[in-house]
Write the structure tokens for this entry.
Amino acid sequence: MKSLVQIENVGMQFATKKGPFVALQGINLQINEGEVVSLIGHSGCGKSTLLNLIAGLTLPTDGSLICGGREIAGPGPERAVVFQNHSLLPWLSCFENVYLGVERVFGSKESKAILRSRTMAAVEMVHMAHAAEKLPGEISGGMKQRIGIARAFAMEPKILLMDEPFGALDALTRAALQDELIGVMQKTGATVVMVTHDVDEAVLLSDRVVMLTNGPAATIGEILEVNLAKPRNRLTLASDAEYTRCRAAIIEFLYQKQVKKAA
Amino acid sequence: MTIASIDISLGSVETAENVSSKPSNTSENMSTPKISPPATALSVPKNAVAGEIAGRAIRTILPPLIGFALLIGIWAIVSMKNKGIPTPEVVWNAAVVLFSDPFYSNGPNDQGIGWNILSSLKRVAIGFGFAAAVGIPMGFLLGRFDFLNKALDPIISLLRPVSPLAWLPIGLLVFKRADPAATWTIFICSIWPMILNTAQGVQRVPQDYLNVARVLNLSEWKVITKILFPSVLPYMLTGIRLSIGTAWLVIVAAEMLTGGVGIGFWVWDEWNNLKVEHIIIAIFVIGIVGLLLEQGLLLIARRFSYDSNS
């Protein structure tokens, strides 16, 4: 498999009033094309910081990140982000929100009609065609996140970055969206990096689970390979031995090796 | 006496501004969506539904009616004790006469109340229009460039609390005529809320939206039209609403000083004629026009405000 993203010895310091704060240090990771990688760890360990570094929203203070042979110097549409709070523009309809990204990526070489059909295809992919003309304020949280995912996929990014995409949703909606995402990833073969703090979500969706140690100066503690055939079905997985093994490994890491002191 | 009355009106300018300078007000004022009655309501006897509607109407209309009745009652008592103050009846009759012919014109010093209101509104519109043309772009610049903000903030802080009427002599000096000088004071009093609210709006564009812009790598033009402008608009409208309110307060005082045609001048003229009933009518008219301006702008603001939490 071809390597898409190389993270080499990356460290991140933030300047605070009490002096420099080391959030991340010595991060080394390769992400291959078509791979789904989860970042998991206790809150405050720097998962989102690492994702923002790959997105280019923040730049590392140490080391380097390379995507597709080029150093990551800033954000760009080839690294689409699904934000935790969906971040749809409230004055644009769902369709227009997706169209904004599509227009930016393909607008220079394709006609308006093709751009519109691309947008509509993405909206249909997440089963939101019925609400395409609604404003984000008129639809539920789960639906908004579907549109957020559609916006990211519609740009056909090299890599999709998700920052706790389902963190703000209730358990049932979250399960529905995870299944939706499994379908979309199957269809597109997308490369995905996802931040999560949900053990089941990590095992269900990823090929590899990257476990981060507690901050400050968090780094990669363990990397778990999930050897489960895709597409996965949450019903049959419940009794699967490999699924149970992966789950146990993550829980052991989080709650035995990296016990979070009571906050 | 002039000075005292002007001071009081300006005092209320400042408080009005302080109270509602938080633009979150616009979203608080958003009306809750009306829920249509469920279908089961049809099975309820008709007279019960009608009774409920009548009850609701009474609950919303009755308290303000009682308030106005109290006001007029107190006024009637005061006017009985003090012969200088006309009774509500006298004022009502005078108003009927005035409004039966609002657009007569017997030379510059004797015109109908309609002309007086319109010429005041015209001054406000011109002064306010110039203030918007200068203040809104300036607000954008101040919000976008921290250096400019730091450079101009002390100047604005220094000039903002100054009564716009203090600028009137400067206006008279520069423009040599009373009319543009009055417009000039409106410009001065309207510009501060416009600059400050627009700048605040630009500074408060949610980081999430700017991150979206960065990830999508939108062009500067798209950032302005699709992200900056729509998210600043509610703040801008708050600034406009505060400006209009202040401008309407100030124009009365400015016209008292400059003379000519206008509602403020008319009040002063009627004081000189000792037609107190006309002054009371003017107070109501000024209040109603101010209320309409405010409500009109609130209506526009509601159309363009989006609940950012949704």
